[in-house]
Specification:
28% of the residues lie in helices and 19% in strands. It has 149 residues and is of the alpha+beta class. It has a single domain (25-144), classed as Nucleotidyltransferase, domain 5 (2-Layer Sandwich), CATH 3.30.420. The model has no long low-confidence stretch (mean pLDDT 79).
């Protein structure tokens, strides 16, 4: 049941988008996120590229993934909520929001469950894009924001 407040918020969003210049890639301040180097753990990891892949067409796309979890957001069942957004350039191609099946006792457990779900979605995306003939520019970066209280 949409309300007047929803319409006002929508108008604010469109006003914000009207003021912003259009870009092919989202502007992400990567200094806000802590960088981790996983090379020591996954030294020999390589992406499996299919042999029957069509030749790439057009400009390369860059993908970004944003994940977050709400620890015990449901006050009745105490289950956490998972939120995942995957963008290719500026377009959201996968959005996922679901209540987690298990009750986690810590933010860490809830975030790890969310990250596992995000990685499962991310593993399939480059294959799909390549099979459509869309070239991928680099690895898909995952951004997770955890708040400390």
């Amino acid at each position: 049941m949409p309300r007047i407040g929803h319409l006002e918020e929508l108008l604010h969003i469109f006003g914000f988008l009207k003021q912003r210049p259009k870009r092919n890639h989202p502007t992400i301040n990567e200094r806000r996120f802590k960088q981790y180097d996983w090379y020591d753990f996954y030294r020999d990891a390589k992406e499996a590229i299919p042999g029957d892949m069509p030749s790439p067409r057009g400009n390369a796309g860059r993908a970004h993934c944003f994940v977050d979890a709400d620890l015990a957001g449901n006050t009745v069942t105490r289950r956490s909520q998972t939120g995942i957004l995957i963008f290719v350039n500026r377009a959201p191609v996968i959005w996922y929001s679901k209540r987690q099946n298990t009750v986690e006792v810590s933010t860490f457990g809830s975030e790890i469950t969310t990250m596992k779900n995000a990685i499962e979605l991310i593993e399939a995306l480059p294959y799909k894009l390549r099979m459509f003939g869309v070239p991928i520019d680099g690895a898909i970066k995952i951004f997770s924001v955890t708040t400390r209280r």
